[in-house]
Amino acid sequence: MKKIETRFGEVEYDPNNLLFFPAGMIGFPTLHSFIVMPNKKEGPLFWIQSVDDPAIAFVLTDPTNFFLNYIVKADNAELSSLQISEEDEYFVLVVVTVPPDQKITLNLTAPILFAPKSNRAIQVILENTEYQSRTPLPG
Q1: Looking at residue 12, which CATH number applies to its domain?
Q2: How far, in Å, CA of 5 to CA of 76, rounded?
Q3: pTM, two decimal places
Q4: Rounded distance between C-alpha atoms, residue 116 and residue 89, angstroms
Q5: What is the pLDDT of residues 36-79, one digit of tens each?
Q6: 131 neighbors 109 (Cβ within 8 angstroms)
Q7: What is the dihedral of CA 46, 29, 103, 138, to 10 degrees?
């Protein structure tokens, strides 16, 4: 087990269970390893904490909790990057932004594809989509 100091306090983690982004995230190309933080509250949101830079953490969610028809299909290059085959399971997640005015938005144009089999994730940019990078939660 290893430890890092984060905004959540001291966090202990198993290096073998890290969520690995081979290409980093958009705007953070050098951040590759993340810890999925345990959810302290019930609900659809959870944190991933960077191991490479303990000052960085992101809130994620499954967008289908809010947008039932949101579907993203991984192409062959994305499946290869995730080190999975077409038959393997993967999840689509999105980054959540909670600004000071509390008007929560979801980045539906740059979803994260996560493969539990490989513990790898990639963030992709959707082309020609109706979705926005700051899509408000439905009210």
Answers
A1: 2.30.290.10
A2: 38
A3: 0.93
A4: 7
A5: 997 778 889 999 999 999 999 999 999 999 999 999 999 999 99
A6: yes
A7: -70
Could you list the residue range(s) of the whole structural domain that residue 79 is in? 2-136
β-pair partners for 2: 13
Q: How far apart are CA 131 and CA 134, in angstroms?
A: 9
Whether 126 and 111 have beta carbons less than 8 Å apart is answered as yes
Q: Where are the beta strands (DSSP E) in the chain?
A: 2-6, 9-13, 19-20, 33-36, 45-50, 57-61, 91-97, 105-106, 112-115, 120-123, 135-136
Q: Say which amino acid occupies 134.
A: R
Residues in the chain: 139
Tokens linked to 1: 């087990």
Query: Could you give the number of structural domains in the chain?
Result: 1
Least confident of 90-94, 98-102, 120-124: 98-102
pLDDT band at 117 (very low <50, low <70, confident <90, very high): very high
